[in-house]
Amino acid sequence: MERFAFLFHPLQHTDFARKFPILMRLPSSWVEGGMKYLPPLHISHVTGARSLTGVELEGDFVGLGMTPRVLLESDFEHFVLPRLIRAGQLAERLGARILGLGAFTKIVGDRGVSVAKALNIPVTTGNSYTAASAVEGALKAVDRMQKDRANVEAAVIGATGSIGRAVSHLLAEQVGALTLVARGEERLEALASALGGHGALIRTSTDPRSAARSADLVLTVSSATGVLVEPEDFRPGAVVCDVARPRNVSAAVYQHRDDVLVLDGGVIRVPGAVDFGFSFGFPPQMAEACMAETMILAMEGRYESFTLGADIEVEKVRLIQALAAKHGFTVEGFRRFERAIADQEVEEIRQRASRAGH
Hints:
The protein is an alpha/beta fold. It contains 12 helices and 17 strands.
């Protein structure tokens, strides 16, 4: 039996109530301020995951009581890192042979490097499979909207970040034009130069909203904690894949633009009759791609720090995608705000976009 552990944290103060319902009655500042001092908690035991190869998997969820705001605003070396290490040590005591970092625990500090050095088990951020599954899902959505990939204009918001660079490499091979969006012009130009031979026409921009307005496909992978694009920023029929957590795409896009297909990125079906033992907002058997990467590596018996630091190797993105297929992990349909999007709804969005374009 292979074993893993995965570390996650609440994305907003109301998430604490999934484990402690009474906290819903308290002011958010009290909840955030108090919960960040809690030691790492064993949230649940995971059972029932089974590879297509027959390998069975068990694991554990470990939780930290820090929201993204607390993680980003607290001193990393003296406050955050010691708590990440304690969480990893709890995972070791639970029997894990690899630890996955979820949400902002893989963004703060040096993106898992110091945590891995302090533990006796390997650590992965899951960003390789996050990148692979985001592109796969987004391009499937482009097909469903009956767009020709060769003529699609895509934009990656957060392109120079860890996931953004890998996503940009994959997309540049499959679309007609690609706009790279980030704040730093020097890093943008360096990435554009690296992508020059991939086939797509490469552009750069420091304005997310302007880039989104001219795109058929928008992927948001920025680590910014706020919304970067609004309803008026998309053309009819656009596919918008929001990989970032917290989200970069305003919920108002879904609420007010019924001619735009808004997706969650990296939502994966885990093979077998998996029971996570805890509801983190997804339908049964569904997991984030970063969580899935940890499980895939455990099933493969590949106990190594697969994805760490700011850089993601495109070769590793392709490798983890192949291992996912080997073990039976799949990008499962289209989902938005942790719910399935019915095929009929996708078709209705496509039809409304078609009418708007005439």
